[in-house]
Fold:
Amino acid sequence: VLLTRPKTDSLCLADEIQAKLGRPSCIAPMLQIEYAQNLQCPDISSFTAILFTSAHAVEAVLGQYQWDLSGKIIFAIGDKTADKLLSYGVKNVFQANGTSEDLCRILKEKLLYSTAPVLHFCGKHVSAVLKEWIDSYALHVESFPVYEAKDVRQIPLDVQRLIKGQNISDVIFYSARTAKIFVALMKKNGLENSFK
Structure:
């Protein structure tokens, strides 16, 4: 099984696949995470709540910058993001089921009478689906990018050899963006006909 998430995410997923399915994995991240440098913490007091849609944003805010979020209501899109928040001792976390729709539903439900905006710590590229649901629920969300997920420029050579030898049975993608990057790199390396 070929995993295309960023390296730390893929390592965790590889362990899960091995434990639950007994299948080996190889890793070819299509995105490389780069944390923003020299950021100043926004004025947390002017926001009603804080939103995280990735564990990478949690790592940037609490791991790299160690900004104080105490006393704020925190929303997490899913279990990996919530687990990362809990690992830093964050309390008051409301967790969605992993979808943008559920996240926005919970935000609207919990912040029904609030007029202050929600601060969204995120990557440079915010999901178009999330933006649509934010608009649909008429939420006031301000994005604050703390990392960038950059496209990789090459599929690792060892993975290319596995693909050429038809030793990859499945490829797992978590976003349309990573699938597009993968297809472009497959074409660039003349591998586009390697999967039947």
Remarks:
- The longest helix spans residues 7-21.
- The chain has a mean pLDDT of 93.
- The radius of gyration is 19 Å.
- The chain has seven helices and nine strands.
